[in-house]
Fold this sequence. Notes:
By secondary structure, the chain is mainly α. 74% of the residues lie in helices and 3% in strands.
Amino acid sequence: MFTEYPLLTILILLPLAGCLALLPLWNCRVSARPVALGVGLLELALSAWLYGSWRELTPLQAKLPGYLLVEDAPWIPAFGIRYTLGLDGISLLMVLLTSFTFCIALLVSWNSIKEKTGLFLTLMLTMEAGIMGVFLALDLALFYLFWEVMLIPMFFLIGIWGHGRKIYSTIKFFLFTMFGSLLMLLAIIALQLLHAKQTGIATFGLHELLKTQLPADTQLWLFAAFFLAFAIKFPLFPLHTWLPDAHTDAPTAGSVILAGLLLKTGSYGLIRFGYPLFPLAAQTLTPLFYTLALIGIIYASLVAFAQEDMKRLIAYSSIAHMGYVAIGIAAWQPVALSGSILQMANHGITTGALFCLVGMLDERAHTREIAAFGGLWGKIPQYSFFFLFFSLASLGLPGLNNFVGEFLVLAGTMKKAPLVAALAFIGIVLTLIYTVRLVQEVIFQKERQPLALADLSPRELLILAVLATVDVWMGVHPAPLLDLIHGPVQLLTGGGL
């Protein structure tokens, strides 16, 4: 039975409707861009309206505790597959991040994509629909469908509009993600069959499958399959090697989507599906999860320090920052989990902005090598200000958004695993080192090459000003977002803040 207005379905179908509107405009670059941006802004407006009115939405306590909106209808009854979408505070935050990030990605690619623009925008909107579906699906078969839909456009974005070793990076991205996806599919089918054997009811519904009684060893095998699929997307050490290549060779918009959203689907999948479905297995493997997250933080930070390509440096820093999200999930404690969810959004804003900045500089200088720059503060002061601002946000300066998320993760983890929290602090120190080195060499170091660089255009200034405003708001006043996710976190952890 649908809600009075199928708002969740509209969130998914609106980008697909935009794809249809773009079909006659594939050869008209000028007309296609405003259409795609208009669809993105409509999606953002609907997401913002849902966020602004979430307190007025009546939680569905009877059927699905904690959910604000649910849409449910039969789809493939013979296999127990239903069209079930649900919106709670966690998914609402991810929906808001998705619609906002896609608007930024469309704006940042406004002039950089000069060939096959209509196809590029169509793939972007298709990917937005898939990611929306991932964050809203409550039927595991439906979730898997959206999981695959969101990956296919990224494959083409890197392969067609990428640069450098784009074919190598595309194939590597495909192989890693497909391996994890197939393992998850097998686990989903096995879980459905085990539930049907116990109850006589065939279903892929999350909240029905939560009631399945599974022996500890079965839980371990099934959780391992889910965990691998989500860990690849995180990406968690040692499954991270596809990400630096994909980031380095992807177009700027692709890097923004990768960092801002695709990585979050892995962490969201663990929170929504992995831990609730297999709690005993998750608890058993918590030490392993902690260990891999800590290795990833320290290893990625050290490798970031050694990079000479700015985009590759930010890619490795992204792996390190997502390690804190992993630690908060592994702790499975209300404060730490709240910090992880908030940090997912924080990371999308800050790292997405840094990729935008590197892309803008690459468009001007046609290089991303750190050694090619220096003295930018005196040449392009507006650009330099935002580069410094988002670098400070990335290293966790108090008052900016990353500080809040990382502080909550470490504070919550300290209650469950003090040693892990203490070791994770090393990553903050390493982040400070490679970020200061980057800022010093690019902005303040003496100019090494006579590059003729123009400062920010009005479009670029708008992009960065909006991102900076959101960054400050999330850092100074995170209470509204923490209130939004408070209820779902309480239900997941069974604890109190």
